[in-house]
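A quick aside before the break. I want you to see a complete sequence-to-structure record at least once, exactly as it would be stored in a machine-readable document. Don't worry about memorizing anything.
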Amino acid sequence: MERSLYSELAERAVLGSALLDNSLMRGPLADLCVNDFGSSAHRDLYGAMLHFSEDGILFDPSTIAQALQDRGELDRMGGYGSIGALVDGAVPETNLVKQHVQTILSQSRLRRLQSLSESIATFVETGVPPDEIETGLMRKVQFLQSGCDLQGRLLPAAQHDQTRRAFQLTAVRANELLALKIKPREMLLDPILPEQGLAMLYGYRGTGKTYVSLGIAVAVATGGDFLKWKAPRPRNVLYVDGELPATTMQERVRTILGGCPPPETLKIVTPDLQQCPMPDLSTSEGQRRLEPLVAGADLVVLDNLSALCKTGNENEGQDWLSIQEWMLGLRKRGIAVFFDHHAGKNRSQRGTSKREDLLDTVIVLKHPSDYDHSQGLRCEVHFEKTRAQLGDAAKSFEVVMQCDPINGARWEVRSLEDANIQRAAELFSAGLSVRDVAEELGISRSAAGRLRQKWQGNTASAEVSHRPTV
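That is the input. The structure line, written in tokens, reads:
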């Protein structure tokens, strides 16, 4: 006989008890979230009760019924009589309610595990390789352990429960830590962006931040190459644009794709296509509004921080904390975050330096010293912070983007050393001194002196090779 994974009696008991004693919502019922209820009617009812509780408003069968009536859901739930009947026989005694809550939680967990086993069976039947099944299984188990559903969406719960759990710390012994089977972090974009990575790209206006960010997003979504970096396999990417007109975003995405078909794994949020204002991601409400789109993403790209995080003073470290906690929460769920930011007048990232503390990677784009606006996108890529030991991969380089009307963006990459040698040769040929070249290139005099020696050596070699033979 198949075991039932839903208890009508337990769910009615806790709902009826809460209608009689609202304080239970912040007591034993604080461990429940909406999706723990097996009945859809009970989920809707508990959601309405949570709304009142979180706003600090008392409720009873009449107020709940009115709220559901205003939403057009009362008739579907059986009318006022069905809600009033919940209090019949209900006993709002804490220990008894705790027992019912444990029953509901146990059955909720079994239902989710059952769904997980069904998804594994589907993967096996469709011929998904074992490695991919194991990776997906580990990720879904992480979702369940972090209070999410199998798609990685946060389960709605009472504020009190979220606050209480946030202060429950867990310590493990060193031997227990070493014995844990923790999935190694793979790379989303090798070698600069790992799974669960947090990275910032910043630069002065006009350096090409959006083009570079879109290039990264497309590479990760397609499992392709971009500049000096490689995405091992396609991933789900959510690109959130905070300021560009839709026509500009369309044009830039088309340029980056360069005639290739747009990947299904890339989703874009841009202001002009919304029916309401863009969310303020510095607030919990704005973060909740983005949540349905974040679920299932491997990488979230935010372009840019100033446009999407509108509340608070960006120079104050305290105002950064709410954004930091949100990003850390995404990382815990296996989601990487890559965000753009502006450089200030001093060419450093604008605002508090506190935001760099938690980041794995910080990249800055700079115009070369001889840059002219007629050159379009030409910039230097510098690494200011890398937690990984990148070696030569962390060396600065220069990028030039040429736009072909048919083939889209064409990227040229060369080492900064090679670029400096070429520019120094042009400057020394024009008669500039070592001091002048050092100032022009933004390097030390000793470095400029070494470049002059290379230039003189190359010049002498060229004269010998062109000397006529007798």
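Two observations worth writing down. The CA atoms of residues 215 and 343 lie 20 Å apart. Confidence is low (pLDDT under 50) at residues 157-167, 463-470. We'll return to this after the break.
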